[in-house]
Amino acid sequence: MFKKYSEIGKTKIGIYMFVHLYSSQINSNMKKIFLVTVFAAFLMACDNQTATTETGEAQEVETTTGATSDFAASTTESSIAWEGTKPNGDSHTGTVALKSGKLAMDNGAIAGGNFVIDLTQMTVTDEGMDDESKAKLIGHLTTGDFFEVEKYPTAAFEVTGATADSLTGNLTIKDVTKSITVPYFAQVDGGKAMVNASFTIDRTLWGVTYNSGNFFQNLGDYLIDDAVKFDVKLVATAK
């Protein structure tokens, strides 16, 4: 009798251990599946470029108050770099030139300013791309598919308001003006002001819709992200 119950007890213990181990294995597998799913979602989010800049309707320019220092932007020392990407991982990089600009500073922070960008001085800086291919790409970027440079040779940005680390201004491209707010870092040293800003805009808000997934379907590898990234380095000298 005791032997019989002992065997039953052993059987129950064996079944319990099997169920526990099996459940642990299921939990372990589910954890792995969950982690893989989260990681895949993260990679998809990284591959899908989106505009990060707050954008709205054009704003009135605020009147600067208090003592400000005026600076003239250097068109040779300043730089504006751009990057366009595709969901398949391809990208193009380049620059546009600063045509003119002035900056008002108040205790090391931006208080005002306006700038003109020369789109006729667009370059492509893709590594490994030959000069003929670069010229072909620039030729396409300057057509009506993109920036229609013959009709709109310049773009412009005018500061409408700013804090110590964030500025808002009206960006005009192809005669379309939108307000954007971007972070920046500024430093004034020895009569020279240096400002750095990195931001991403949605090109379609300025009428540049070529091969956008929000306007065209079934583009495959021809699909181009709406987001365009800019890295701006502004160097200005006190007047």
Global structural class: alpha+beta
Percent of sequence in beta strands: 35-45%
The CATH homologous superfamily of the largest domain: Lipid/polyisoprenoid-binding, YceI-like
**Assigned CATH architecture of the largest domain:** Beta Barrel
How many strand segments? 11
Approximate helicity band: 10-25%
Q: Segments where pLDDT lies below 50 for 5+ residues? A: 1-48
What's the Cα radius of gyration?
28 Å
Distance between the termini: 106 Å
The gist of it:
The chain is an alpha+beta fold and 239 residues long. It has helices spanning 2-47, 131-141, and strands at residues 54-57, 69-73, 79-85, 91-106, 109-124, 154-162, 166-173, 176-183, 185-189, 192-202, 227-238.
Helix-strand blueprint:
Layout: H1 2-47, E1 54-57, E2 69-73, E3 79-85, E4 91-106, E5 109-124, H2 131-141, E6 154-162, E7 166-173, E8 176-183, E9 185-189, E10 192-202, E11 227-238
Antiparallel strand pairs: 1-8, 2-4, 2-11, 3-4, 3-11, 4-5, 5-6, 6-7, 7-8, 9-10, 10-11
